[in-house]
Amino acid sequence: xxxxxxxxxxxxxxxxxxxxxxxxxxxxxxxxxxxxxxxxxxxxxxxxxxxxxxxxxxxxxxxxxxxxxxxxxxxxxxxxxxxxxxxx
Length: 88
Prior knowledge:
Elements: H1 3-20, H2 44-58, H3 73-87
Helix pairs in contact: 1-2, 1-3
């Protein structure tokens, strides 16, 4: 896995922890492969909030139709990197 992917995963973890106020978790201990809905408890409103922050952070649009596909931090990172690469 590239350094860029690891940095993106760490930043997305920070955003999710901050936005969802996950007090007992740090970006270093947040498992990027946890299912955000089933294992972290993220609901559709939480995901919409995180998507808005990610849009501002990375300058990409996340289509609402894509929300169900974004099940883990690692998948979100890959999605963002793909979107950034397609915009170059």
